């Protein structure tokens, strides 16, 4: 029961983040320059978060610990890559 609740919460956060990355890009353009390259970067990660959010719902329904751990590893890798790339874009903006 706890896995279902937590992964549903994760799905909601990821779907909200996906919406913000896709539709409300102006929030992020206060941190990085507004260019077509950065717009495509935000749209790509928006789609990745959308897929991960939908996958979280599937993982919650399946409710197996091994699949949940594999999903969490995938989620952490995606989050780390987004954070590192966004930080690099922010650093370029300061220079």
- The end-to-end distance, rounded to whole angstroms, is 49 Å
Q: Which stretches are poorly predicted, pLDDT < 50 over at least 5 residues? A: none
Helix and strand content put the structural class at mainly alpha
The global form is elongated
Q: Biggest sheet, open or closed, and with what strands and sense?
A: none
Number of β-strand runs: 0
Mean pLDDT: 89
Describe the protein's architecture and organization:
By secondary structure, this protein is mainly alpha-helical. It has helices at 2-23, 36-62, 65-94. The protein contains three helices and no strands. It starts with a helix and ends with a helix. The longest helix is centred in the last third of the chain and has 30 residues, at 65-94.
Record the SSE blueprint.
Elements lengths: L1 H22 L12 H27 L2 H30 L1
Q: Quick summary of this structure?
A:
The chain is mainly α and 95 residues long.
Identify the notable features of this structure and list them briefly:
mainly alpha; 95 residues; 0% strand
